[in-house]
Design goal:
Blueprint: E1 25-28, H1 31-34, E2 39-43, H2 55-67, E3 72-76, H3 81-93, E4 97-102, H4 113-120, E5 124-128, H5 130-134, H6 139-148, E6 155-156, H7 164-169, H8 171-177, E7 183-188, H9 192-200, E8 206-211, H10 218-230, E9 236-239, H11 253-266, H12 275-288, E10 296-300
Parallel strand pairs: 2-10, 3-4, 3-6, 4-5, 7-8, 7-10, 8-9
Antiparallel strand pairs: 1-2
Bound molecules: pyridoxal-5'-phosphate.
Length: 307
């Protein structure tokens, strides 16, 4: 149901959607941590809003305000959590949205469930060939793409939603965790959430990112995101690049079994693209002795499984 602004058109204040902020933090008992003297907290960003889930809320909220009622154009792959969140926000706030989807060939196929949800939420889908998609941050390519999507004058949010506004939006996630954990860990795609979160933590806290893509480019990307959002490096953060399981949306039987077992043990629905890799990485790190006894680790639950 769109939030109506009466005669003034759509309301772009996300407060009208009643986000659950700060998100709850829950301590869980898991012998794979307790036997090493580690406390594990789950920072439940997945509970912020039923449709604008997790870090997508934190990153989109300031952008939707900045869009001020204009059409929002953004980018993503065929299973993008970011596209679904943007489409849902469009429906809830009465904003037109356009999704530029990687893969021209998808135009000729039935929509997968993720894209079908985007379309049902009113997002207009525009399929883009892979080579153009790769160059979408070049100004001329972007301008041509927006024109081709019939969306000139629209507010453009980059792939994954990680611009400076989004990074600053994630600062609050760090602030909410001050005084609650020694190490804050999360899975990274673009790294925008980590860039903001690390800046919001207290000086004695550390952020640990688990990239779900392979490639080793993320440290530089996060540095750039912090430079743009804050004018320089902020907070104490590092990445552990060992837990991508082959790359984005790749999995293995071991990871699947791990995620199912975690769900059974703790009743937490484990999102598979990101959260499963984070939790697996933390169990492995605890086993390696990476955290001193007495350490409190907060794992940010950035999302929920789809559908
Ligand atoms: C989008 C997403 C991420 C990645 O966030 P970045 O800011 O791009 O690093 C992590 N977890 C979940 C569940 C997501 O949907």
């Amino acid at each position: 149901m769109p939030v109506s602004g009466g005669d003034n058109g759509p309301v772009t204040s996300l407060a009208a959607l009643h986000p659950r902020l700060p998100s709850p933090a829950q301590e869980i008992e898991d012998d794979r941590f307790t036997r090493h003297g580690i406390r594990l907290l789950l920072k439940r960003d997945d509970l912020i809003h039923p449709e604008l889930i997790g870090n997508k809320w934190r990153k989109l909220a300031p952008n939707l305000t900045a869009a001020a009622g204009r059409t929002v154009v953004t980018f993503g792959g065929a299973y993008s959590n970011h596209l679904r969140a943007t489409a849902a926000a469009g429906r809830l706030l009465g904003l037109p949205t356009v999704g530029a989807v990687r893969g021209q060939e998808l135009a000729d196929r039935p929509l997968n469930p993720s894209l079908a949800r985007c379309a049902a939420d009113g997002m207009r889908l525009h399929f883009v060939d892979r080579s153009t998609y790769r160059r979408k941050t070049e100004p001329e390519t972007l301008a041509a793409l927006v024109r081709a999507a019939d969306a000139e004058g629209a507010y453009v949010v980059p792939e994954g939603g990680s611009n400076a506004l989004a990074v600053r939006g994630c600062h609050a996630l760090g602030e909410e965790l001050r005084g609650h954990a020694d190490v804050v860990a999360l899975a990274c795609g673009t790294g925008g959430t980590l860039a903001g979160l690390a800046a919001g933590l207290a000086p004695d806290q550390r952020a640990l990112g688990i990239p779900v893509l392979r490639g080793g480019f993320l440290t530089a990307d996060i540095q750039t995101l912090q430079d743009r959002a804050f004018g320089g490096r902020r907070g104490s953060w590092r990445l552990d690049e060992r837990f991508h399981f082959g790359g984005y949306a790749r999995t293995t039987p071991v990871l699947d079994a791990f995620a199912e077992d975690f769900e059974d043990r703790h009743g937490l629905p484990v999102e598979r693209l990101y959260v499963a890799k984070l939790l697996y990485g933390l169990v492995a790190l605890a086993e390696e002795g990476a955290f001193a006894r007495g350490t409190t680790v907060a794992a940010v639950i950035t999302g929920r499984p789809f559908p």
